[in-house]
């Protein structure tokens, strides 16, 4: 660092422009503070560019393809159709561009400065931003927020790096339907892509080291998801340890694994790695700022999202927060309130989520597994989706609704839905939980007929076990 060059001073300096970070920028700049955000590539972070929103765009198109394939079932005759992947990709790109434009307008409107540059700390509280043309700027902030996110983990398996596997970033840019896509990881990314790509016409094989897909969930959920995927012709290779990879993704790949002690080789044309995330904390000079990391390389924060360096905060996935956009957005509220002198903590907050398979799986609060492991006594309400008249009217009756209610009170402990509209119906229960309403108030509510949330009346009128 050249001692002659004085860093430009901001009230708030932010590294990374993800969900929580950009909300902080717009909020404080809107209040007249001098704010800068340093972002190396994606205006608005991962969600609008390479993660949630583009993946849901492509998943929706795949659902249309699925419905076209099922057209006879609806009494609609379509003789021939083909998938035009460049057009699928263009539609997604148009959506992304629209979102980027909205973000740029919000930067302009709020007065926050967006610096498109790669950032790294070069001294205590001093950030060096390297622009695309090589120009460097030194910046400092009275408060600093780090929101650099994560990237896809690519394990050091022999042949893996040489195979140049796709991650979600490249998979969202495909202009061909892979003939046979092998997916490593049966978590959120793996399952959403597996179904979408199958619906575009790929053969799909999903490999996971666990015995079940999204293995943290209750067995009825994982069983339901597994049969959904298998019914659509997706092959699941579970309890598998990948030994080596050969070939190049996009041409041909061979994945050698051992499953239940037996070695086997899968052959495909493309390989997608969806095996978890790695925090973006390497080589950005965090040691120079005094920001400590956890054993897994995430930024160590307290429940106020303060790092070990005074005046330096962290938000989103890099801070080890649950890996969802709405949680990164809640991290914004926590840091905003604390910067304004409050005491807002992350402890005990709700973490709802929705897996965007079709049908969806959504959950808020406790699973049965968790209640049992904590020795919490509960009553279980559970009905198949056939009890939901809206689902009957659509003839989309796969799945179930279930709710855990505290045994000695009417308090809702957790709710899970696997079925059409699962994400929307979960939000209804979540709001009841926020308002500390007993489950009986949902049972007795007048809910419009026939809507998916009306199914809550059927759920809570059923006999609990
Ligand atoms: C395929 C996929 C689908 C998903 N779908 C959903 C979903 O449906 N719903 C949901 O809630 N969540 C979903 N997620 C998770 C969600 O995308 C993330 O939780 C969310 O984007 C996290 O945001 P963040 O604030 O941690 O940072 P990010 O959005 O990751 O932003 C970090 C930013 O920092 C930048 N950056 C990093 N290092 C530097 C540096 N040195 N200099 C400058 N800039 C830097 C990066 O370029 C990036 O733009 C999905 C994730 C994936 C991968
Ligand atoms: N709808 C949503 O909200 C949504 C969608 C996509 C992603 N996300 C978020 O992004 C995060 C990351 O998603 P992800 O799918 O990459 O991770 P994940 O943690 O959900 O799943 C990774 C899976 O890969 C498996 N795996 C890891 N290494 C392996 C190996 N060597 N061999 C075989 N299996 C292996 C793991 O056992 C796990 O099942 C999720 O946890 C989620 O929070 C959310």
TrEMBL record:
Covalent S-S links between cysteines: 47-52
EC number annotated for this UniProt entry: 1.8.1.4
Keywords, comma-separated and alphabetical: FAD, Flavoprotein, NAD, Nucleotide-binding, Oxidoreductase
Active site: 449
Named cofactor requirement(s): FAD
Limits of the Pyridine nucleotide-disulphide oxidoreductase dimerisation domain: 351-455
Gene Ontology molecular functions: dihydrolipoyl dehydrogenase (NADH) activity; flavin adenine dinucleotide binding; NAD(P)H dehydrogenase (quinone) activity
Span of domain FAD/NAD(P)-binding: 10-328
Binding, FAD: 56, 119
Residues involved in NAD(+) binding: 185-192, 276
Co-factor: note: Binds 1 FAD per subunit.
Pfam families to which the protein is assigned, alphabetical: Pyr_redox_2, Pyr_redox_dim
Family: Belongs to the class-I pyridine nucleotide-disulfide oxidoreductase family.
Record protein name field: Dihydrolipoyl dehydrogenase
Organism, scientific name: Granulicella mallensis (strain ATCC BAA-1857 / DSM 23137 / MP5ACTX8)
């Amino acid at each position: 660092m050249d001692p002659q060059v004085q860093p430009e001073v901001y009230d708030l300096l932010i590294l990374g422009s993800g969900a929580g970070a950009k909300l902080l920028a717009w909020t404080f700049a809107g209040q007249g503070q001098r704010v800068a955000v340093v972002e190396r590539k994606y205006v608005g972070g991962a969600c609008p560019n390479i993660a949630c929103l583009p993946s849901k765009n492509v998943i929706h198109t795949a659902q249309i393809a699925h419905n076209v394939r099922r057209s006879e079932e609806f009494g609609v005759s379509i003789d021939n159709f083909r998938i035009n992947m460049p057009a699928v990709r263009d539609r997604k790109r148009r959506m992304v561009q629209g979102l980027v434009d909205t973000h740029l307008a919000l930067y302009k409107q709020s007065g926050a400065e967006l610096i498109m540059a790669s950032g790294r700390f070069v001294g205590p509280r001093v950030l060096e931003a390297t622009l695309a043309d090589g120009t460097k700027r030194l910046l400092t902030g009275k408060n600093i927020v780090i929101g650099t996110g994560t990237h896809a983990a690519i394990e050091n398996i022999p042949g893996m790096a040489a195979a140049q596997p796709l991650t979600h970033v490249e998979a969202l840019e495909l202009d061909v339907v892979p003939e046979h896509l092998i997916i490593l990881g049966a978590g959120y990314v793996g399952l959403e892509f597996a179904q979408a790509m199958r619906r575009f016409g790929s053969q799909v094989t999903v490999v996971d080291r666990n015995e079940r897909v999204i293995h943290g969930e209750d067995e009825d959920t994982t069983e339901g998801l597994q049969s959904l995927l298998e019914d659509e012709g997706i092959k699941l290779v579970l309890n598998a340890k990948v030994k080596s990879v050969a070939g190049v993704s996009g041409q041909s790949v061979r994945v050698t694994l051992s499953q239940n002690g037996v070695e086997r080789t899968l052959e495909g044309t493309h390989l997608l790695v969806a095996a978890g995330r790695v925090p973006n904390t390497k080589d950005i000079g965090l040691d120079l700022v005094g920001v400590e990391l956890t054993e897994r390389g995430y930024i160590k924060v307290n429940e106020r999202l303060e790092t070990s360096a005074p005046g330096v905060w962290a938000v989103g996935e890099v801070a080890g927060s649950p890996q969802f956009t709405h949680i990164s957005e809640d991290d914004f509220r926590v840091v905003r309130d604390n910067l304004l002198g409050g005491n807002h903590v992350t402890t005990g907050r709700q973490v709802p989520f929705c897996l965007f398979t079709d049908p969806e799986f959504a959950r808020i609060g406790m699973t049965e597994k968790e209640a049992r492991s904590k020795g919490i006594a509960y009553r279980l309400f559970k009905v198949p989706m056939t009890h939901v008249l809206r689902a009957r009217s659509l003839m989309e009756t796969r799945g179930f609704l279930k709710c855990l209610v505290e045994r000695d009170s009417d308090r809702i402990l957790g709710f899970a839905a696997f079925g059409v509209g699962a994400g929307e119906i979960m939000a209804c229960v979540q709001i009841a939980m926020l308002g500390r309403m007993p489950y009986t108030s949902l049972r007795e509510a007048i809910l419009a007929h026939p809507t998916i949330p009306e199914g809550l009346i059927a759920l809570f009128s059923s006999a609990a076990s």
